[in-house]
Amino acid sequence: MKIDLTPLYASTVGFDRFGSLLDAAMNADRQGAGYPPYDIERVEDNEYTISIAVAGFRESELDVQVENGVLTVRGKKEAPKKDAQYLHRGIATRSFERKFNLADHVEVHDAKLDNGLLELHLVREIPEAMKPRRIPVGSSKPAAIEQAAA
């Protein structure tokens, strides 16, 4: 399904990549097949946590990168022992790649692995120049000089 965003572009500036973000979001579930499962939590107004279930992965087998506004988390298991004989193998150990599109000014502050969960702490830091500021409105006439009554 393709969404036509032409009317949106008539009244906005700088949202050129919005359409591709929507397409990527609509196709994300088909590509990753839901593995590994994850949660996205809003901790505060400008703070988020992404928790990814990576049971069985070591820190050395995980790779977290941010490039061009895309957070990519990859997991690649080391080769299993050749002499292991499993009677049942139910723990998923396949490699994976998860991508998250980040909004402008969202930065990954840290990543930690604890009890099989990879937790990524993200913060939106709006630069001072981007924060709202009041613009004084002046007049083209010179300001009248008030004189104090003597």
Structural class call reads mainly beta
How would a textbook summarize the main sheet? Answer: 4 strands, antiparallel
> Mean pLDDT, nearest integer?
82
Count of alpha/pi helices: 2
**Which CATH architecture of the largest domain?**
Sandwich
How does this model look, in words?
- This protein has 150 residues and is mostly beta strands.
- The chain is built from 2 helices and 7 strands; from the N terminus they run H-H-E-E-E-E-E-E-E.
- The strands form 2 sheets. The protein has a 4-stranded antiparallel sheet with strand order 1-2-7-6, with no helix packed on it.
- A hairpin with a 2-residue loop joins strand 1 and strand 2 (47-53).
- The longest helix is centred in the N-terminal third of the chain and has 15 residues, at 18-32.
- It starts with 5 loop residues before the first helix and ends in a 26-residue tail after the last strand.
What are the main properties of this structure?
mainly beta; Immunoglobulin-like; elongated; four-stranded antiparallel β-sheet; 150 residues; 33% strand; three-stranded antiparallel β-sheet
